Amino acid sequence: MNVTIFTTNRCPHCDAVKQWFRKQGIRYNELRVDQNNRAAKTLARKGFRGVPQVEVNGSFVRPLTYPKLTKACGLK
After folding, report:
1. Strand, helix or coil at 38?
2. Are 10 and 36 a contacting pair, CB within 8 Å?
């Protein structure tokens, strides 16, 4: 499974999503849009204006809810 989390510094929602993935034992890549211009442009092209945004196997999980994350990751 390929998981990418788009985040910024000092984002409590980003921290919560990363913690959820760690609790599930799922490895992820983190792209900080405040430090990575390419990541910021990717989100802008998709029309996403906030973080966190989570991409699982090439598809963004929208809306970002834990039940949707659970399903996208094939859990339960």
Report:
1. helix
2. no
